[in-house]
Amino acid sequence: MSQNEEITRKTRQIYDWIDKEVDSLQNSCESCGKCCDFADFGHKLYVSPPEMVYFAQNVTVLPMTKSICPYQKDGLCSVYEHRFAGCRIFSCGKNAEARADLAEKQAILSEKALGKFKDICITHDLDYFYTDLATALNR
Ligand code: SF4
Ligand code: SF4
Prior knowledge:
Blueprint: H1 3-23, H2 38-41, E1 46-47, H3 49-58, E2 72-73, E3 76-77, H4 85-89, H5 96-123, E4 131-132, H6 133-138
Helix pairs in contact: 1-3, 1-5
The structure holds iron/sulfur cluster (2 copies).
């Protein structure tokens, strides 16, 4: 197995773990797609190197030329199965009270996930960065 295949395998395991963890949160996402328009929604999506390796192994990497994610098509995620950790973890919450509680749980989950991605970088001698999606896609 090549290094990139091994990184992809490990990243997939982290995504599966995240999905299980998210199931236990009060995830009220209605898949409206609004948060994928980052400027409009006031949201940023950060990604890590193993995720970009995984992504490039599974989909065609497109440049990001506008504030909206280039993978959103007709309001839906066209790469849903392969979306990033931040896409999996973030949910805006139905109301202010739910949002605060959810944001705290999401922050803890994000930190744990980030630790796992950092471990992959160390093991595979990958330069670590945690950067916004536009920067990562346009590299
Ligand atoms: S997290 Fe919120 S804004 Fe984003 S798709 Fe779900 S419901 Fe829509
Ligand atoms: S990858 Fe999918 S879920 Fe994530 S920002 Fe892009 S369109 Fe939205």
